[in-house]
C-alpha cells in the first residue's frame, strides 16, 4: 500500500474494472507481492535484460 | 489499464546488431544470420537523433544494449557522455569480452553507472557451447576483472535453459568468489530467430527448481539474487520468490530503440511503432494497446492480479501461441491467485526526513514522477509534488507531511516509509 500522495499507475477499482487512477488507495490486489503497490509499477522485465539497483 | 506517461521511464537502446558471441538463447530477432555490419551507414545521424529525443523527452534511464555495444565503442561513447551529462542514468549490457583497461576508463568517464554481464555458465565447455565461442568463460571473466578494477557495480545474469540448469549453483559460487554481489538466474525464452532452441526451454518443474536454487544461493553465498523476466505469478506454483515478482512494462514505462532508430515496446517484440526521426512520443503514444487491458488473456479472468500480471511475458505468448492475448506458456492456472494477501510493510519510526536534493522530477498529468536512481522512483500527486518542490534538500517533519496531504499521522508515516524506501526521502 503506497500511502497518500503516492499513486498507482495501474488504474483499477475494487471490483476489478478499469477506472481512473485511484489516489491514496490501499492496494487491493497486488499486496500479494509483499513489497507494496509501488513495486508493481517499478519492477520491470525490460525484455530480458534489466532490473538492477546500481 | 496503465496510466499513459508523457514518455517512457526507461529506454533500451540497441546500439548495434553485431555481436562477437552467438549465444544459442539470444533473443535478438535479427539473428537468423551472421551480422557483419556493426552499424548503419547513417549511424551518426541516428545516434544524434536518439540522444536528442531521449534528453528532450526526459527519459530517466537508458540501457545501452545490442548486439554487443562494445563492438561500436568509439562510435557510441560520445553519446553516452552526452546522455550522462544530461543527468540520465546510463547503464550497460555487455559480455565484456571486448573491454580493455583504457575502454573501462573511458566508460567510467562517460558516466556508465553499472554493467549487466551475461555469464552462461562457470563450466568452460558449457559456456563455449552456449556462446559458440572458444574460451568464452576466460574472456568474459577477464572483462569482468577489468570492470571491477574500475569499480563498476557488476550484475551477473545467467540465462538458464536445459543446457545449463544443473549449473546454476556452481555458477553462483564462481560469481561469489569473484567478489560480485549480485547474481540473476533468468529462464531462457524461445527466441523468435531460432527454431531449434525450443527443445531447451525449461518446463514448469525445471523453472521452479531454478527458483529454489536461487533461494539457496541467497542463503549460502550471501548474494543478492534476482531473475530478470516477467514471469507470470502463477508460474511459481507454491514458491514465493524472495526477489519479488516482475511484471511486463513494455509500452507502459519501457520501450526499445533499434540501431536503425525503430521504436518497439520491448527488445523481443519485432513490430515497430515508428522511427526516432518522427519523434519518440509519436511511437510511444501509439503503444496504447500495451497499456490497456486488451491483452489480458481470457484464461486469467479469475486471477486477483490480472491487471498487473497481464498473463506474463507477451513475447513468450506470441512465440508459443501466436497471439499477444494468449497466456505466457509458463502460466499455470491451477495456482491462480484468488485471495489477496496483506502487505507486511513496517512503518518508519522516524519523525524528520530530508528531501533528497538530487532527485529528478518529471511533470505528468497526475502530478509527477520523482526519481532518485534506477528502480527508485514513485509517481506522486500534485499535493505531494508541491511539498517536494518547496522543500528540495530541506528537512521536513512528519507533521508537515500530515498537513500538506491533509491526512492522519499513521497515513503520513506510510507515505514517508515508501518515500524512504526509494531514497526520495533521506
Detail the poorly predicted runs of chain B.
none
Strand % of chain A is under 5%
CATH H-level name of the largest domain in chain B... which superfamily?
Answer: Aldolase class I
Total helical elements of chain A: 1
CATH fold group of the largest domain in chain B: TIM Barrel
Q: Please trace the helix and strand order of chain B, writing H or E for each element.
A: EHEHEHEHHEHEHEEEHHHHEEEEHEHH
The beta-strand count of chain A equals: 0
Per CATH, the architecture of the largest domain in chain B is Alpha-Beta Barrel
- Strand order within the widest beta sheet of chain B: 7-6-5-4-3-2-1-8-9
End-to-end distance of chain B: 32 Å
Quick structural gist:
The complex is a heterodimer of chains A (54) and B (426). By secondary structure, chain A is mostly loops. Chain A contains one helix and no strands.
Feature tags:
heterodimer, A: 54 residues, little secondary structure, 0% strand, globular, disordered C terminus, B: 426 residues, alpha/beta, TIM Barrel, 2 domains, 9-stranded mixed β-sheet
Amino acid at each position: 500500500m503506497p500511502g497518500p500522495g503516492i499513486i498507482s499507475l495501474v488504474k483499477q477499482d475494487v471490483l476489478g474494472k478499469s477506472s481512473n487512477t485511484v489516489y491514496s488507495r490501499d492496494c487491493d490486489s497486488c499486496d500479494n507481492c509483499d513489497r507494496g503497490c509501488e513495486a508493481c509499477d517499478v519492477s520491470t522485465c525490460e525484455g530480458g535484460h534489466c532490473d538492477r539497483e546500481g | 489499464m496503465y496510466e499513459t506517461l508523457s514518455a517512457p521511464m526507461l529506454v533500451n537502446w540497441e546500439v548495434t546488431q553485431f555481436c562477437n558471441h552467438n549465444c544459442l538463447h539470444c533473443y535478438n530477432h535479427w539473428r537468423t544470420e551472421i551480422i557483419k555490419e556493426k552499424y548503419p551507414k547513417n549511424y551518426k545521424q541516428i545516434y544524434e537523433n536518439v540522444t536528442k529525443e531521449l534528453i528532450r523527452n526526459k527519459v530517466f534511464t537508458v540501457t545501452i544494449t545490442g548486439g554487443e555495444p562494445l563492438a561500436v565503442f568509439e562510435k557510441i561513447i560520445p553519446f553516452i557522455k552526452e546522455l550522462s551529462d544530461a543527468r540520465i542514468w546510463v547503464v550497460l549490457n555487455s559480455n565484456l569480452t571486448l573491454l580493455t583497461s583504457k575502454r573501462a576508463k573511458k566508460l567510467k568517464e562517460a558516466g556508465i553507472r553499472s554493467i549487466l554481464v551475461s555469464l552462461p555458465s562457470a563450466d568452460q565447455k558449457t559456456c563455449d557451447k552456449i556462446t559458440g565461442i572458444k574460451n568464452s568463460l576466460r574472456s568474459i571473466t577477464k572483462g569482468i576483472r577489468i570492470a571491477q578494477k574500475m569499480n563498476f557495480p557488476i550484475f551477473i545474469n545467467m540465462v538458464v535453459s536445459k543446457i545449463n540448469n544443473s549449473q546454476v549453483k556452481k555458477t553462483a559460487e564462481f560469481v561469489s568468489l569473484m567478489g560480485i554481489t549480485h547474481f540473476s538466474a533468468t529462464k531462457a525464452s524461445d527466441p523468435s530467430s531460432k527454431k531449434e532452441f525450443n527443445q531447451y526451454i525449461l518446463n514448469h518443474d525445471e523453472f521452479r527448481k531454478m527458483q529454489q536454487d536461487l533461494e539457496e544461493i541467497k542463503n549460502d553465498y550471501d548474494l543478492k539474487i534476482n531473475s530478470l523476466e516477467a514471469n507470470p505469478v502463477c508460474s511459481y506454483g507454491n514458491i514465493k520468490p524472495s526477489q519479488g515478482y516482475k511484471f511486463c512494462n513494455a509500452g507502459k514505462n519501457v520501450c526499445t530503440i533499434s540501431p536503425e532508430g525503430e521504436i518497439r515496446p520491448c527488445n523481443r517484440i519485432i513490430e515497430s511503432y515508428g522511427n526516432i526521426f518522427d519523434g519518440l512520443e509519436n511511437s510511444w503514444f501509439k503503444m496504447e494497446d500495451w497499456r490497456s487491458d486488451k491483452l489480458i488473456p481470457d484464461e486469467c479472468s479469475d486471477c486477483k492480479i490480472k491487471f498487473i500480471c497481464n498473463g506474463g511475458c507477451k513475447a513468450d505468448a506470441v512465440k508459443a501461441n501466436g497471439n499477444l492475448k494468449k497466456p505466457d506458456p509458463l502460466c499455470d492456472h491451477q495456482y491462480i491467485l484468488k485471495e489477496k494477501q496483506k502487505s507486511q510493510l513496517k512503518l518508519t519510526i522516524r519523525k524528520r526526513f530530508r528531501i533528497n536534493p538530487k532527485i529528478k522530477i518529471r511533470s505528468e498529468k497526475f502530478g509527477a514522477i520523482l526519481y532518485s536512481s534506477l528502480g527508485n522512483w514513485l509517481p506522486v500527486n500534485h499535493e505531494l509534488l508541491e511539498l517536494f518542490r518547496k522543500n528540495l534538500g530541506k528537512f521536513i517533519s512528519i507533521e508537515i507531511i500530515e498537513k500538506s496531504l491533509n491526512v492522519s499521522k499513521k497515513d503520513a508515516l506510510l507515505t514517508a516509509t515508501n518515500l524512504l524506501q526509494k531514497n526520495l526521502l533521506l
